[in-house]
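If you are new to this repository, start here. Below is one unmodified record pulled from the training split, so you can see the exact layout before writing a loader.
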Amino acid sequence: MIVITLEVCGKEKELVVEDDELLVDVLREKLGLLGVKKACGEGECGSCSVIMNGKLVNSCLILAAAADGAKITTIEGLGRVGKLHPIQQAFIDGGAVQCGYCTPGMVLAAKALLDENPDPTEADVREAIAGNLCRCTGYQKIVSSIHKAAEYVRDRKSQVAGRGDNE
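And here is the target side for that same chain:
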């Protein structure tokens, strides 16, 4: 047993974990973050994607002990009912949400991309989501929604900057 500390969705958590316990299991079973899906267990589908220390990772491939001290964002840390994150809103507006199983990983892949590249090309978007499998779509609505999200994020940043200039 090992004691680890994680910052998960902005809140510090101290947890006791097994040496061989995976981060996906800790997030789902110990912290109740069910937006982190457990599917392939091999890092191939992206359903378990989280942002760890600013990078998109497959939590099914990371030992919880190796994440000690990390900052982790799951889908639960982005928006909330009544105040969705612009990426979540763009996915809804663009019809990119089908069954919803891949959606958390896709949204987090989009966030990781837009945090680094606020004006991605279609090739950039397709590369960013390449590790996330979706059985319901042909990906076009997802790609279009990520481009719409980039607009929403840029618009939100300019509105915030505009308010700061007027105050």
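Two things worth knowing about this chain: The first helix runs from residue 23 to 30. Residues 86-161 form a domain with the DNA polymerase; domain 1 fold (CATH 1.10.150.120).
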